[in-house]
Amino acid sequence: MIYDPLRRKDVALTPEERVRQWFIEQLRTAAGVPLHQMMSEVALEYGARKKWRADIVVYGHGGTPMAVVECKRPDVEITKEVLEQALRYNAVLQVPFLFMTNGHLTYICRKTDDGYDFLEKAPVYEEMLAQCQP
Question: What is the 3-state secondary structure of the chain?
Fold first, then answer.
């Protein structure tokens, strides 16, 4: 078991959960995202029949979603299919940032007028907030 500070409870320590908890810590320490501005295992609905769970969602002021994170086990490659999964979540959330990680490789995309750009480094929380300003 491992304590999930976002769900505020112990959860089973699966390989994917280990990656999720590592990335929560990365968001908190390296990107400066406050714990109270993140949620894990966020239920999403797309249409009447599609139900998904986003691994992590980062929120801005007023509870506006700013980023979605898709975590995979360390032995799962980050492929086009993983990106498509994150894009499906974003069809619901409409966030400017997508993160995909397996704990070894992390890809970060920022929404542009033309689609998405891959970023060289993760934005810090203040940069994400600035991107979400009208």
Answer: CEEECCCCEEECCCHHHHHHHHHHHHHHHCCCCCHHHEEEEEEEEECCCEEEEEEEEEECHHHCEEEEEEECCCCCCCCHHHHHHHHHHHHHHCCCEEEEECCCCEEEEEECCCCEEECCCCCCHHHHHHHCCC
Q: Are strands 50-59 and 9-11 parallel, antiparallel or unpaired?
A: unpaired
The whole-angstrom separation of Cα 41 and Cα 49 is: 18
Listed in sequence order, the residues at least 6 apart from 50 whose beta carbon sits closer than 8 Å to its beta carbon are none
> Cα 36 to chain center, whole Å?
14
Phi, psi of 124 (to 5 degrees): -80, 165
Confidence of residue 133 (pLDDT cuts 50, 70, 90): low
Looking at the whole model, is its pTM more than 0.85?
Answer: yes
Dump pLDDT digits (tens) for 22-65: 999 999 999 999 999 999 999 888 766 678 889 999 999 889 99
Q: Give the C-alpha separation, 87 to 6, whole Å.
A: 23
Token digits of residue 108? 């970060």
